[in-house]
Task: structure prediction
Amino acid sequence: MCYHLITYCEYACGHQVPTRRHYLDCNRTRCRISVRHQTVEHDCANECDQEMLADQHLVMERSLLICDACAGRTNVAAIGVNGASTQSSDDSGGETSEPSSEEETN
Result:
């Protein structure tokens, strides 16, 4: 079955920050998700694997430095585990609506 491999950098503080997400294709004809899934008519629901395996996690890099969160660099966007902050995505195109100075005085 297909799965995602998520690679991490582990910092001296112990936090692990994801660096990449890789899609790994099992290349099986009996896997609905694979690019090799058979195209001929068949009973896919009963014959083929329908779901991906759970994401696999692997530390690929180590750093002698501490992570941004532990170094007090809180304005740096980070996606991490073990207590690191999580970045959220939105559709605003990077624009934020902050109150103007007039609104703050009210």
Q: What stands out?
A: Strands lie at 3-10, 16-24, 56-62. The radius of gyration is 21 Å. Confidence is low (pLDDT under 50) at residues 83-106.
